[in-house]
Amino acid sequence: MPARTPDRIGWAVERLDPAGADELLEIGCGNGAAVALVCPRLERGRITAIDRSPTAIATATKRNAAHIASGKAVFLATELACFESSAHSFDKAFAVNVNVFWLRPTAELRVLARVLKPGGALCLAFQPPNESQLDSIATACAERLAAQGFVEIRTVRDRFDSGPLVCVHALRGEP
């Protein structure tokens, strides 16, 4: 039986609001917990989940074998900066606690600008170990997103027993 899904994963999936025929990209999928929550919400859509760790991909693949068999999930061991996909392939992308987005994500955001459809949504969720980091993470992400042409950037916050969370939501601007 899989471990309990952390609150931050479920919260991030709710912020993303996957449905129907959405084509989704998860960056840093870890053990595949978010994919397990997303796939039941997809009718004709699909999620591509990437992680730089082959061990994480192996765990996620095992956890989501039924979703892979149904064609709703694909897992790839790759870093986002090296991710290859057709242009404008995804309606929505998301990541949970992937620190590159508030550090120096220039190459990664260029990849996302290429693979997201115009107007496609990006949700970056974080649950830092210290609440005092929320503002700096949200500000850094928003600045980096704006610099790469993302628009309608907004921040959503919440709190769970496990701690505070922040999600930076943006849309891919027109090319």
Protein model, in words:
This protein has 6 helices and 7 strands; from the N terminus they run αβαβααββαβαββ. The protein has 175 residues and is α/β, with parallel strands linked by helices. The radius of gyration is 15 Å and the shape is globular. The protein has helices spanning 7-16, 33-38, 54-63, 65-69, 106-115, 134-147, and strands at 23-27, 46-51, 73-77, 90-96, 116-126, 150-160, 163-172. The protein has a 7-stranded mixed sheet with strand order 3-2-1-4-5-7-6, sandwiched between helices. 31% of the residues lie in helices and 31% in strands. The model has no long low-confidence stretch (mean pLDDT 93).
Question: What layout of secondary structure does this protein have?
Answer:
Layout: H1 7-16, E1 23-27, H2 33-38, E2 46-51, H3 54-63, H4 65-69, E3 73-77, E4 90-96, H5 106-115, E5 116-126, H6 134-147, E6 150-160, E7 163-172
Parallel strand pairs: 1-2, 1-4, 2-3, 4-5
Antiparallel strand pairs: 5-7, 6-7
Brief characterization of the structure:
Helices cover 31% and strands 31% of the residues. The protein has helices at 7-16, 33-38, 54-63, 65-69, 106-115, 134-147; strands at residues 23-27, 46-51, 73-77, 90-96, 116-126, 150-160, 163-172.
